[in-house]
Amino acid sequence: MSLSVQNLSYIYAKGTPYEKKALDEIDLEVKDGEFLGLIGHTGSGKSTLIQHLNALLKPTTGSIFFHGQSIYEKSFDLNQFRQKVGLVFQYPEHQLFEENVFLDVSFGPKNMGLSEKEVKERARYALDLVGLDPSFDRRSPFLLSGGQKRRVAIAGVLAMKPEILILDEPTAGLDPRGKTEILDQILTLHKTEKISVVLVSHSMEEIAKYVDRLVVLSKGKKRYDASPAEVFAHRQELEEIGLLVPQMIYIAEKLNQRGFCLSYDLHEPKDLAEEIVRQWKAAAQKERG
Predict the structure, then answer these.
(1) Which of 37, 154, 158, 206 lies at 20 to 30 Å from 19 by C-alpha?
(2) Distance between CA atoms of 71 and 265, rounded to whole angstroms?
(3) Do 39 and 165 fall within a single domain?
(4) Cα 228–233–238 angle (5° rounding)?
(5) β partners of residue 215
């Protein structure tokens, strides 16, 4: 595994009247090449946790290891670590500042001390990855659509060629089409570049069909860490902590009560409908003998 969190706790304003425990003994592994979903209601500790994964916060107790080495050792290179673990904040387009798209995406590689030739190569590489062709290079990032701005911001992190890409609510504020485009783009990046992705969200509906594994946080504690289907089996418990499972799960659950045997891995209406028809035909054929 490339990134490991062990027994991590974090207290805001420790020792003051405003003291608050945001994370409580979290254990977490980000495995090489996996697509991990991190989900929880507002205030669950998601954003606090990912700021630790990029070493922006230091835990009150606990440790984080990157390729087996503690990131808190004096000999550990935090600057290089932050290049390897790229963090895209919520509403990242608010961090765009250059006069054109190409310069904005070039900012990170330039600060890495790379040659001008390599900076340009990395910027072009990253923009290609997010589906922005050279016609966007000289355009002002502030005149792009919301989804395009989001892509530029993600490209700025990808230009540093991270091993792990962490995205905090990447679909926030986008319309349904924009949300689907961004999530599909992230999935394509994961598959083509073989990088680990940590996708943070408060919506099961949005990320269920994308992730390999789902980690659920509630009140600073890790409640579940399993495949989406295994997590969705705890529908009632999830609702109690303010999370709704995808609509397909509610439909499958109702039909299973009527004799079907539908998997909780079916996230698209088309797939669910095909499986219902398949099982109905199989049952009808069995009755006919």
Answers:
(1) 37
(2) 36
(3) yes
(4) 85
(5) 38, 225
Domain count, the chain: 2
Strand partners, 70: 65
Give the pair of three-digit tokens for residue 199.
Answer: 């996708």
**Residue 249 tokens, joined:** 């799960």
Confidence of residue 289 (pLDDT cuts 50, 70, 90): low
CB atoms closer than 10 angstroms to residue 210: 18
**Mean predicted confidence (pLDDT) in 20-48:** 94
* Alpha-carbon distances of 154 from 132, 157, 180, rounded to whole Å: 11, 5, 15
Q: Which domain, by its residues, includes 254?
A: 246-289
The pLDDT tens digits for 101-150 are: 999 999 999 999 999 999 999 999 999 999 999 999 999 999 998 889 99
**pTM of structure:** 0.89
How far, in Å, CA of 202 to CA of 41, rounded?
6
